[in-house]
Amino acid sequence: MDRNLIQLGIFAKTFDRKTSAKLADAIALSGYECTQFNMASIGLDSLPLSLDHAQLETAKRDFDASKVAIPVVSGTYNMIAPDPQEVEQGRHGFRVLAEASKALGYRTITLCTGTRHAQDKWKFHPDNAGEEAWSSFRAELDRLIEIAEAHDVMLGVEPEPSNVISSPKAARRLLDEVGSDRVKIVFDPFNLVEWSNHEHASDTLLRAFELLAESTTIIHAQDMRRDGKPAAPGTGFIDFAYLFNLFLRGGFSGPIIAHGFGENEAASTANFLRGLLPAKGPAR
């Protein structure tokens, strides 16, 4: 484990700023060294139809000046939407993000593994659990793997209860089936525990860790209140000290990205999370 490779980050969309320079400064001043970027943070669509390379160069220069890295970008669309045109448009936006990866420096694009719900990619539909939905997702994922290979990026799959990859078990099945090093896991405890069973949250996370740790490259630090609502890490019932210890002992060295709270809690959350991580040594 190289402790110097562990970066503490935050969703860029936590902040509402008009320019990339102000956004990067806000992230750095709140105590973070990286971000999960979103093109919406610089006034574009999250999955843009095209990109202005001058705008990307400006964003990269501004983030470099603030010493904020961009290891990952949000590229979510409904991969099994009932409307095939919606899927095709999402795939086009994903391709644009892949093409822009070198300009901004990210290597991972996060996915929404999809739902048959026609209006909301984050809402459950009973057909999600069927083999037809699985097959549709796998076919779309294969297309994204081809794009990822062409542009040397990784795909960040996050188990979401409302999506096809709804659990650690489903994610493990995917990893075993797909056989591609391009497919990695985004481990978000909020999406792995149940608020109604909060007293067993650490046991649940341990089982998920055992299934997915070897393929996890990003941890999402999002806490949960006892009513099931998201909360800033340290203000809910998830034991982040326990979770981080599992991953650190297992050799994890990727970004830890906080989200699920407002800008007013950004600095205090950074302080809390940094206190759970090993101190970094001097640069070599």
Describe this structure in words.
Keywords: Isomerase, Plasmid. Residues 27-273 form the Xylose isomerase-like TIM barrel domain. Pfam families: AP_endonuc_2 (PF01261). This is Xylose isomerase domain-containing protein. This protein is of the alpha/beta class. The chain has one domain (3-274): TIM Barrel (Alpha-Beta Barrel). 37% of the residues lie in helices and 17% in strands. The chain has nine helices and ten strands. The chain has helices at residues 20-29, 53-65, 84-99, 101-104, 131-151, 168-178, 201-212, 240-249, 266-274; strands spanning 7-11, 34-37, 69-78, 108-112, 154-157, 183-187, 216-221, 223-224, 230-231, 255-258. The strands form two sheets. An eight-stranded parallel β-barrel has the order 1-2-3-4-5-6-7-10, surrounded by four helices. Helix 1 (20-29) packs parallel to helix 2 (53-65), helix 3 runs parallel beside helix 5 (131-151) and helix 7 runs parallel beside helix 8 (240-249). The longest helix is centred in the middle third of the chain and has 21 residues, at 131-151. The mean pLDDT is 94.
Primary descriptors:
17% strand, isomerase, TIM Barrel, IolE/XylAMocC-like, Xyl_isomerase-like_TIM-brl, isomerase activity, plasmid, alpha/beta, two-stranded antiparallel sheet, 284 residues, 9 helices, eight-stranded parallel β-barrel
